[in-house]
Design a protein that fits this description.
The structure is a homodimer of 635-residue chains. With 635 residues, the first copy, chain A, is mainly alpha-helical. The first copy, chain A, is built from 22 helices and 5 strands. Chain A has a 5-stranded parallel sheet, with helices on both faces.
Chain lengths: 635, 635
């Protein structure tokens, strides 16, 4: 009991430290060490920071290819209740998944041909639908989906390791947060460098999977395609309904999430971008198909059933290789590839958020590139929200795996319909074939999205279907706010010019000392008749101040105010209201506040923060100009 | 497991909300409702807010009298290992406790006679010792002790209830925090009003205890003074050592903590203050002695042993009254009186902290009286630190009970020695008797403090003995800082006068719009030659800005700076360094920053906080005057 609480406290502390660090770290060298030297904007388009297609392949495909590890299993889990006679269904389900994969890849290649400068579902929807909400539906679905991907992938990765090594089980949440922090730092360093770090593990996992498939083939060529555990083929199991089959199919389709990453990331490729992207798509399609067919068929031949404590991948690997070194390698590459799936999402999320923010639908801060040219704010937003999800669910987010496919397939559908509209409008070479491909794509993806929404509604899909409209609504409100502010600030450049204002300058004084002297020197420099204001809590202090002022030779007019309630703010605001009522219409009121700046942080505790407090309150509640005169304490 | 984490999270959230509320709530009506209308400083000395002695008695004695509930038990627990033949020792131990009580009360009455305007150990030490650290030793011991008292009393109160009703056991921490929040609100309302709320429960507990003692006497007059469970008297148990006896005695002395409250609180009494305070001391001494003798003797007659799950008080009450309604009443009054012990500490802590802060040894903020004339900051500091202790120890702080007596007895000793020095110096009527009383007091309390420190050193006393010197050290550093700042700020009023400064005014502009227009109007009002500064991230934006500026008729000189690293701060500071190098020695540099003020809090997310960020950085790192021109967005 105590242990868990401490764990949560540690997480809170770590997050708090990190938040503070991020908020104010621009000037600490730790940031330089972790993030690297700042980069010039002109380095953005340098070819050397762009990706060659066969390095982009492993980086951008981690999200899709890692799903191979759980997609077929998710499908078979739905049919587990029907007994061994349903096991053969993995073969047709895998084939229909691959069929869907091919349709999707073809559709996305059409997308790249139509938008060679890159553009995911959002850009396509924006270009082809007049209604703003359609594009926002695409972007909101994807953004929600990206957040879910990070939490789910990282949690799954940590769980994979903790199933192999139960000793780390109590630290799952902390480890998952640690993974996210590492991903955060790496992504703040920038995309090109991540490439070099991240290409190899995915290549490793791909190799593992291909070795596994090849080993299976060898095994079957020696022992035959029907082995002692191979279930019967083609029998219709009792209790099989169309709904159940659809559920199994849609769950298996979760293996296809992440396919949009390449098309969203066209700008990160080396020239010629569209051709590189298409090459990557084709290569990825071939590798994924081979893996899926081989993996699915070997699962059938060995008659493997889904098991909560032992993944089907782990079971198959154990049959071929035992629990030796190669089994360990597969487990660790599964871990790495799931973490990389989360990583590819960082680029995707921050770029999409920046594009949508550029259009005024999200806070503009998301368009700012950080020191290392990544969209730092988007990267930080993703890391934080994913961390909150992980903490809330204590890193047990597997239940969410099937859910996040809804968002993806919704955005797939919008993109396909948008492309159909485009081909119809723009025509061009082979437009009818292209239109046909995208029409089929739209049909299939909308069917899958619909099946997902219906079959998973009660088990959590409703959350996603609730959050997406809320996000669309908020995006539209953000857009309206920016539009209104722009209109409010607009001036006619030819008729309105800055006229010299009459400025009434008030100086808050707390006695006669060095800081007041400096502040009055400044006030006299900018105003002919500054007025000093002193707020006292009793008659004695006011009399003392007036006497001292006189002795000082009355450097300017002094107004003393007695505060019977020991508050500076209330008498001051009453006085300011009086001045505002009497001043000419065009005159501006300026309050000059002297402020100590302590040398050591703990000295801040020793000084009155009236200056700070007054500034915040006056800025928020009054139309008054605030000037702070700093005095840096030597002690 | 999940449950606990949520509990901790809830506490964090509650604390965070509370902290925010406190920081910024001056202007929300919720504070008015909870705390009440603000009071004038002149209401401070009104007699109607002062306490009559017999109302002060229950309020100021809750701390001491509540210890009766656990003092004898704490002593007997030390001897539990010796078996039934040690049970009779409760009688001599109780008598020696009462002997100590009488000596302490006499010494404190001497203290009031010497310092009729009130003054606890700190005031006495300050007046009689030249060395600052002696007074600080007294104040630090007491302040640490007050914090421990609040956490221990509140935790014990909650545990009392949760032993009677196990259903609340999982919520102990939250309930303890809730108690502290309630005490906090009540104390922020002010001391006189707390009086009316808090007098009755203590009176109730006293009545309960006296009824219990009287019932015991009746019981013994019927059934005899030797009953079936009465252990033998006077036998020396095997294994009894002097060290063990000292340990038992010192633990029993924890019943005497809180005795200093009355002498520290003389100013809250109605006139004549010293006489009222002395009356209260005598009455309290009589009631406490009767209770302790009766309670201790009945425990012996009934042969009750200490039991972790059932207090000796609860056992004795159950023998006389069964588990019926009167037993329930005793349990609940025990709860209330322990909470009240915490309450009397709030007044004590905040007043002592204010006195020490007035002398410059603690942050001055502790001397500020809040709206309701209580020392709000001290009250808030006490509530927060006690809450942190409770959260850290999950409301299981009983182990700390014997520890906090060290601080008290240390400060007792210092006060007694101080008084001895004073009688020797000042003489006056009966000075030799008074000196004798305080000399005996000093001897006894120093012996108890020494016994505590030695016998409890390994079980936690070392923490207290470590923290107190640290506090003394910090207090001396605080004092030095205030002294140095005062010297640094001091000016010769006859030779130094504010001379009109030459001011260089720079205006940050981000384009040509309404806010820039207002800001430039102001700048022209205070400066003949303001300079506008524009920081652009690329050549296009700079060219566009320059063209627009020209079209606007160049209202003042415009300097454009290109930032290759997308940062405004770095090129700006480079530019400022240039200006600082070239400016005349006496000239001051002013940066004028226009700032949006959003209407709704969430709109803050949509705007760039460059203005805020720049202000914080420049204030902290440069000797530059910052002016903020607010623009309140209508949307």
């Amino acid at each position: 009991m105590h242990h868990t609480s401490h764990k949560v406290e540690i997480i809170f502390i770590v997050l708090a430290i990190f938040a503070l660090w991020n908020a104010a770290s621009n000037f600490f060298s730790v940031k330089r060490v972790l993030i690297g030297r700042p980069m010039r904007t002109s380095e953005l388009n340098a070819q050397k920071n762009k990706l060659i297609w066969f390095i982009a392949l492993p980086i951008l495909s981690a999200d899709l290819y890692s799903s191979v590890a759980y997609g077929p299993e998710a499908g078979m889990t739905e049919l587990a209740g029907l007994g061994p006679s349903a096991k053969w269904l993995i073969v047709p389900i895998t084939f229909s998944t691959i069929f869907l994969l091919i349709i999707l890849i073809l559709s996305y290649i059409m997308g790249i041909l139509a938008y060679p400068n890159g553009g995911g579902s959002y850009a396509i929807a924006k270009d082809n639908f007049k209604e703003k909400w359609v594009a926002l539906l695409a972007s909101s679905s994807l953004l929600v989906d990206y957040i879910l991907t990070v939490s789910v992938s990282v949690s799954a990765a940590v769980e994979a390791v903790s199933s192999a090594y139960p000793v780390v089980a109590p630290f799952e949440t902390i480890l998952a947060i640690l993974c996210i922090v590492i991903l955060l730092v790496i992504n703040l360093r920038g995309v090109a460098e991540s490439a070099k770090i991240f290409a190899w593990p995915t290549i490793g996992f791909m190799t593992c999977m291909l070795v596994l498939v090849f080993t299976g083939l060898l095994n079957e060529s020696h022992l035959g395609f029907v082995q002692k555990n191979t279930p019967p083929f083609g029998s219709i199991p009792k209790g099989l309904s169309n709904l159940l089959l659809l559920k199994a199919f849609s769950s298996a389709c979760s293996a296809l999430t992440g396919i949009e990453t390449i098309s969203n990331s066209v700008p990160v490729f080396r020239d010629p971008k569209p051709k590189s992207a298409i090459k990557t798509y084709i290569a990825l399609g071939i590798i994924t198909s081979i893996t899926l067919i081989g993996f699915g068929y070997h699962l059938y031949v060995q008659g493997i059933s889904p098991n909560v404590h032992n993944t089907m991948l782990s079971q198959l690997a154990a049959i071929y290789f035992g629990h030796g070194i190669f089994y360990q390698i597969i487990i660790w590459f599964t871990f790495l590839v799931l973490v990389l799936a989360a990583n590819s999402t960082f680029t995707g999320f921050s770029q999409l958020a920046a594009i949508v923010a550029e259009d005024g639908f999200l806070p503009r801060a998301l368009t700012h590139r950080g020191d290392r040219l990544g969209y730092s704010n988007g990267i930080i937003v993703l890391a934080s929200t994913a961390s909150i999800l992980i903490i809330t669910f204590h890193a047990h987010t597997n239940a969410l795996i099937p859910l996040y496919a809804i968002g993806v397939f919704l955005s797939f559908t919008i993109a396909q319909i948008g492309l159909v509209k485009r081909w119809k409008r723009e025509k061009g070479p082979h437009w009818k074939t292209k239109l046909m491909i995208n029409a089929v794509g739209a049909l299939v993806t909308s069917a899958v999205a619909f099946i997902f929404g219906v079959t998973k509604f009660t088990s959590g899909a409703w959350i996603v279907l609730l959050i997406i409209p809320i996000l669309i609504f908020l995006s539209l409100k953000v857009y309206r706010h920016y539009e209104e502010v722009t209109n409010e600030l607009k001036i006619d450049i030819h008729t309105i010019h800055p006229e010299e204002s009459q400025v009434i300058s008030l100086v808050l004084v707390s006695g006669v000392h060095h800081l007041v002297n400096t502040t009055l020197s400044f006030a006299k420099g900018i105003s002919d008749h500054p007025i000093a204001i002193y707020v006292g809590f009793d008659d004695q202090s006011i009399e003392r101040m007036e006497a001292e002022w006189k002795e000082w030779g009355s450097p300017c007019r002094l107004v003393t105010i007695k505060s019977r309630y020991r508050s500076v703010l209330q008498p001051l605001t009453r006085f300011l209201r009086l001045i505002e009522e009497k001043k000419p219409d065009q005159a501006q009121v300026q309050v000059i506040i002297p402020q100590f700046i302590s040398k050591k942080w703990w000295h801040n505790l020793l000084h009155n923060h009236m200056a700070l407090f007054l500034r915040v309150w006056l800025m928020r509640n009054k139309n008054i100009i605030i000037t702070m005169v700093p005095y840096h304490l030597k002690q």
